[in-house]
Amino acid sequence: MTTTTHRSAEEIGRTPEGPRTLPPLGPTRAVPLPDVEERTLPNGLRVLAAHRPGVPMVELRLRVPFAGDAPEHPAVTELMSSTLLTGTAERDRVGIDDELAAVGADLFVGVDPQRLLIGGSGLAEGLPDLLAVLADVLTAAAHPDGEVARERERLVERITVARAQPHTIAREALQRKRFGDHPITREMPTGEEVAAVTAEQVRALQATALVPGGSILTLVGDIDPVVAMTQVEKALTGWTAGTPARELTRPPAITPGDLQLVHRAGSVQSQLRLSAPALRRDDPRYAALQLANLVFGGYFSSRWMENVREDKGYTYGAHSGVEFVPGGAVLGVETDVASDVTAAALLETRYELGRLTAVPPTAAEVDAARAYAVGSLLISLDNQGGLASTLSALAADGLGIEWLRGHPARLESVTVEQVAEAALEFFAPTAFTGVVVGDAEVIGARVRALGGITGP
Amino acid sequence: MPNGLRVLIVPDPATPVVGVAVHVDVGFRSEPEGRTGFAHLFEHLMFQGSESLEKLAHFRHVQGSGGVFNGSTHQDYTDYFQVLPAAALERALFLEADRLRAPKLTEENLRNQVDVVKEEIRLNVLNRPYGGFPWILLPPVLYDTFPNAHNGYGDFTELEQASLDDAAAFFDTYYSPANAQVTVAGFLDVDETLRLVEKHFGDIPARPAPVRPSFGEPLPTGERREAVPDAHAPLPALAVGYRMPDPGADLDGYLGHALLGSVLGDGEAARLQRRLVHTDGLVTDVSASAGLMGPLDARDPDTFTITAVHPAAVDPDRVLAAVDEELDKLAAQRPSEDELARQVARWSAGLHQENDRIMFRMLGLGARELLYGRAEIGVELPDRLAAVTPEHVRAAAAALRSGGRGVLLVEPKEGE
Question: Helix, strand, or coil here: A20?
């Protein structure tokens, strides 16, 4: 299409020498993970700090358990996080941002039913400035009336946009299907709920819920952990409260059952979202489950992905993975497929789930998954941000860097039989529930014909 | 190398991982009329097997060695890359060399990947609000010529018409070693790595590099405006596109525009955030940035973009008028040294974060070497940005106000 004379596809694909042999792997290089300095401050805040040079930056994660039962809790929480950086007694919105920018720093605030997370980064030499701003908003965020009013409007508009996203619709339907009306399902309030929130409610929530007891601050970067610890103590000593942060309760166990068909008019794709119980990281069978999951759908070279994408062309991506919830864990099996192949993709998904139990992973499949699990962990920890996020998540589960150090050895020691046992227990099609979101008028008849479907 | 392949080596003794990237000097601006989306489709085909590797083998070997992989198609280049534990360096070079030498292009794989790409487009464009906004929707408003204006993801009917012979012609024309570059970054020994690159890529026969056309086109005059319906979007959105200086010929002018983007859009203190979001309450969110697919990611011409999502009750002309006023203020009065210094500090921090990941460091250096012949731009960037003066930023704002522009309006479709 560009040159008038070119080789044919067949000619391009062969050379006089013929196929060549894959080179072996070289010696493995180990780079030790840094030691983590840890301290609990008098106010109850746990602080973790680790020296990871490379670039002159520091990464910060503050995790505050943030559960609440009140019906308005998700809406007040979202608005509070939106106005947290909009002013204190000493700094206004612009002042906060200017002070952060001066040391190359950024802060962001995110919430979900389990926790509020303040994340950020900045030049390492500016850590005291970053901590000073953080301390100011933690102890003296004013949530001014005008800022609350404006952020409330924006939040309602943003929620309107987010709720138009098919993945949001599918996620909400899945949470309801597997956890009923437990507070863990309340990931995004409605626009109406946000519109009803007052500035007084926002300020009251900060006073009662944004507290140090049970919270965890993680710092990773080109810092001296001992010095950083002193800087944290100095900056955050005034952050106090009478009660600790509130942890989310354990959601109900997943009940296997029919998939719920959820109608989305005009959808040109469908979302398949299946879920079953799984294991937490501290379970002795976790490494075996991790490998079984990789073989099923946890990476590109998995049975499910190779089937529904590379063989059938039904999807751009198909992924399965473990998600941790309070006191437990769940398996998620997720893909988006064209409307006209929705039933076919569901059939293949159920087939691959069944096949993982009936025809368990081979030694070669387990070895490939093992190498990927070990290697991708190494890669994910090879930067300050990745290490900070991982340490923060582990700490919330009561695990530390020794879990990370020991995990490659745990993965290496898993046997093929243990993977088969995990596959049988956790991937049996009868263990799953879930949702199918799409245009029911287009996909309904064929999907229902497969059985195990309820809904419109 | 003698066959024309360029090699860039970036050692880092502190990391346990290594990355290998192949950048090919062809992007979606080079695909012919009637074959929109072909450069991206071809990127998919390059993962489908080669002389020594059956279908699926590439993925399995990379991941089974503990690594991750991907590829992406941009305006002017296509990249293929892997990041793995350092023990897999030679294996990664072998895998990349095998497909650059002799990819296995088959009808079955072509049909399969047309289906996969269509699902990718449904996922990212057709089934969601603001799909392709603004990277697909804005260029046809601002540009007149096919290379600059067309949809790089491609039209479904044209993707379906793609033939195996198209793929063979595309490979022979553009995937010559003289039109490609290998970047290796991470834990490595430079001499040994050069030896391994030579061992695996050295016998790819030389072929001529294609003549790279200019994609230049006259600057637009006045304002062009188009509206497109979006059945999934709950709120209207708009994008304004402007031309910007050629980064190859006028890097300081280009960086003046890049920092103008930050002064306008980055952070709560930025001009458009303060004015449009907070003072006037006209928009839900606003952004401003240099480069359609990121800064320093394409040759000339490239696009400076301002985007906003706004309530239906707000007339888009009010948003545009406020943007123009803020640009006029900057064109009349330079930003302060402090205001600029804060934005430069954020840029520098962002560059440090990019450098902290082997994958991003490798891809950034590789792309700048391929596009501008100077990987060092990535290293020099903090100093170059620090040297940008308030006058550069003022001049950039004045240039936006005096040049033509394209305005795209995304309108929620009635009844949704």
Answer: coil
The string of DSSP codes covering A302-353 is SHHHIIIIIIT--EEEEEEEEEEETTEEEEEEEEEEEGGGHHHHHHHHHHHH
Structurally, what CATH architecture does the domain formed by B223-412 represent? Answer: 2-Layer Sandwich (3.30)
Which of B68, B90, B113 comes nearest A26 by C-beta? B90
What's the CA gap between B131 and B122, in Å, rounded? 9
Domain boundaries, chain B: 6-201, 223-412
Using an 8 Å Cβ cutoff, are B64 and A367 in contact? yes
A-proximal residues of B, 57-116, CB under 8 Å: 59-61, 63-69, 83-91, 94, 98, 101-106, 111-116
| Structural tokens at position B233 | 């979007």
Task: List chain A domain ranges.
Answer: 36-236, 259-454
Whether B89 sits inside 8 A of A374 (CB atoms) is no
Query: Do residues B220 and A146 lie in contact, with contact meaning Cβ atoms separated by under 8 Å?
Result: no
The model's pLDDT over A254-263, given as tens digits with 9 standing for 90+, comes to: 999 999 999 9
Contact B215, B299 (CB under 8 A): yes
Tell me if the domain spanning B6-201 has CATH number 3.30.830.10.
yes
ipTM of the complex: 0.94
pTM metric for this prediction: 0.95
If residue B352 lies in a helix (H) or strand (E), which one and from where to where? helix B337-355
The strand pairing partners of A330, in sequence order, are A277, A323
Three-state secondary structure call for residue B278: helix
State the Cα–Cα distance between residues A134 and A232, nearest whole angstrom.
10
Contact list in A for residue B285 (CB cut-off 8 A) is: 154, 158
CA-to-CA separations, A297 to A49, A93, A353, B54, B233, in angstroms, rounded: 35, 45, 10, 21, 32
Residues in chain A: 456
Interface test with B, best of A82, A379, A384, A407 (most B CBs within 10 A): A379
Residues of A with CB below 8 A from B38's CB? Answer: 1
d(CA A175, CA A337): 20
Say yes or no: do domains B6-201 and B223-412 share a fold: yes
Q: Where would I find the beta strands (DSSP E) of B249-319?
A: 285-290, 303-309
B51/A18 Cβ within 8 A:
yes
The per-residue pLDDT for range A383-431, each reduced to its tens digit, is 999 999 999 999 999 999 999 999 999 999 999 999 999 999 999 999 9
Contact B18, B196 (CB under 8 A): no
B residues 235..274 contacting A (CB < 8 A): 235, 267-269, 274
User: What is d(CA B385, CA B255) in angstroms, rounded to the nearest whole number?
Assistant: 7
Residue of A nearest to B285 (CA): A154
CA angle B355, B361, B367 (to 5 degrees): 140
Tokens of B234: 């709950």
A177 Ramachandran zone, left/alpha/beta (phi>0; psi -120 to 50): alpha
Closest residue in A to B235 (Cα) is A161
For testing contact with chain B, the best of A31, A59, A97 (most B CBs within 10 A) = A97
Please classify residue A116 by burial: count the beta carbons closer than 10 Å to its beta carbon, then call 0-12 exposed, 13-18 middle and 19+ buried: buried
Cβ atoms of residues A264 and A442 within 8 Å:
no
B248 in helix, strand or coil?
Answer: coil
Taking domain A36-236, whether its CATH number is 3.20.20.120 is answered by: no
Residues A60, A231 contacting (CB under 8 angstroms): no
The CATH number of domain A259-454 is 3.40.50.720 = no
**pLDDT tens string B8-59:** 999 999 999 999 999 999 999 999 999 999 999 999 999 999 999 999 999 9
Contact state of A13 with B104 under an 8 Å Cβ cutoff: yes
CB A14 to CB B356 under 8 A? no
